[in-house]
Design goal:
Elements (H helix, E strand, L loop, with lengths): L2 E5 L2 E4 L4 E8 L2 E12 L6 E6 L5 E3 L7 E6 L4 E6 L8 E12 L4 E7 L3 E6 L1
Parallel strand pairs: 2-11
Antiparallel strand pairs: 1-3, 3-8, 4-5, 4-9, 5-6, 7-8, 9-10, 9-11
Length: 123
């Protein structure tokens, strides 16, 4: 079964940095788009940054110039480098991947989510 496992969350001071990683494991044939989302308490998840299989990136306006998404296809890993952190970046961050893989019974293209990692930025 496919799993996405995030790491790198934690506590940082305002102005500091954190780097999130998300490793996809399982019988994976192709990883298409990958992304990072975040969720504030009581709110819906919002897209923070995305990266296509070709390396094209996009960001929500609030993180442009501060966050950088990248991917290492050989390691099935997507990263989110977060610099100049602000208290309003405090949230649970989730990685997301659109990939073609062996599921429970069939090989198919599906969207998968990680379990989430808490990022807390103190002022």
């Amino acid at each position: 079964q496919v799993q996405l496992v995030e790491s790198g969350g934690g506590l940082a001071q305002a102005g500091g940095s954190l780097r999130l990683s998300c490793v996809a494991s399982g019988r994976i044939f192709v990883i298409y788009n990958q992304a990072w989302y975040r969720q504030y308490p009581g709110k819906q998840r919002e897209l923070v940054a995305g990266i296509t299989s070709g390396g094209n990136t996009s960001y929500v306006d609030s993180v442009k110039g501060r966050f950088l998404i990248s991917r290492d296809n050989a390691k099935n890993t997507v990263y989110l480098q977060m610099d100049s952190l602000k208290p309003e970046d405090t949230a649970v961050y989730y990685c997301n991947a659109d990939l073609f893989a062996q599921g429970a019974t069939i090989i198919s293209r599906q969207e998968y989510w990680g379990q989430g990692t808490q990022v807390t930025v103190s002022s």
